[in-house]
Amino acid sequence: EVQLVESGGGLVQPGGSLRLSCAASGFTFSSYWMSWVRQAPGKGLEWVANIKQDGSEKYYVDSVKGRFTISRDNAKNSLYLQMNSLRAEDTAVYYCARNPRGANMDVWGKGTTVTVSS
Amino acid sequence: QSALTQPASVSGSPGQSITISCTGTSSDVGGYNYVSWYQQHPGKAPKLMIYDVSNRPSGVSNRFSGSKSGNTASLTISGLQAEDEADYYCSSYTSSSTLVFGTGTKVTVL
């Protein structure tokens, strides 16, 4: 079964850091671009970042550039999102998604919740 | 990286057809045939319904169809059913090699 499972969410103070993980199974992880997408409470979806199969290309939404870093370990079938200098507006459910091509995100995890609050 | 524009809500009676629009620019929707549509039920992860403007993934009902004209993409749901009540989001590839979502549309089945 093709599956993505996120972990690492939690409560963190403003200015703090958190590292999200996404474990992939059931498909050849190293063959796909991967994305992180977030959804603030009661709000719409926001694409955050994506990464090429070999990690050589990474793209970010402007609001997280310089603060968030996407990475992957193909040997461990895992995707990561290192989040630094967290702000209240980063509070959201964070989803990882398989991103075969363009805007196509065909497999999604169930999400992990990040809350930034003092 | 402005969000694509969708109507906040669309409603229809069972059996009717509805269309949701998604308006961007020549740097995203109008510039590439990389528009996708997602359905999201409350508390659930999004589900891919349409990709590359008009293609349906395996398992998605043929009541869902997509199209594009200029800078505006559209999702049509025909034969509206109660289970179609959900939030719908479009997404597009952009000239900056990033992705952008639409503002989202709440579909209500009357």
Describe this structure as you would to a colleague:
The complex is a heterodimer of chains A (118) and B (110). Chain A is mainly beta. Chain A is 0% helix and 51% strand. In chain A, the strands form two sheets. In chain A, strands 2, 4, 5, 6, 9, 10 and 11 form a seven-stranded mixed β-sheet that branches. A four-stranded antiparallel β-sheet of chain A has the order 1-3-8-7, with no helix packed on it. Chain B has 110 residues and is an all-beta fold. In chain B, the strands form two sheets. In chain B, strands 1, 3, 4, 7, 8 and 9 form a six-stranded mixed β-sheet that branches. Chain B has a three-stranded antiparallel β-sheet with strand order 2-6-5, with no helix packed on it. The model of chain B has no long low-confidence stretch (mean pLDDT 97). Classes of the chains: A mainly beta (118), B mainly beta (110). Chain A binds chain B through residues 35, 37, 44-47, 50, 57, 59-62, 95, 99, 101-106, 108-111, and chain B through 1, 3, 32-36, 38, 40, 45-48, 51-52, 57, 87, 89, 91-93, 96-104.
Task: Annotate the secondary structure layout.
The complex is a heterodimer of chains A (118) and B (110).
Chain A: E1 3-7, E2 10-12, E3 18-25, E4 33-39, E5 45-51, E6 58-60, E7 68-73, E8 78-83, E9 92-99, E10 107-108, E11 112-116
Parallel strand pairs in A: 2-11
Antiparallel strand pairs in A: 1-3, 3-8, 4-5, 4-9, 5-6, 7-8, 9-10, 9-11
Chain B: E1 9-12, E2 18-23, E3 35-40, E4 47-50, E5 64-69, E6 72-77, E7 86-93, E8 99-101, E9 105-109
Parallel strand pairs in B: 1-9
Antiparallel strand pairs in B: 2-6, 3-4, 3-7, 5-6, 7-8, 7-9
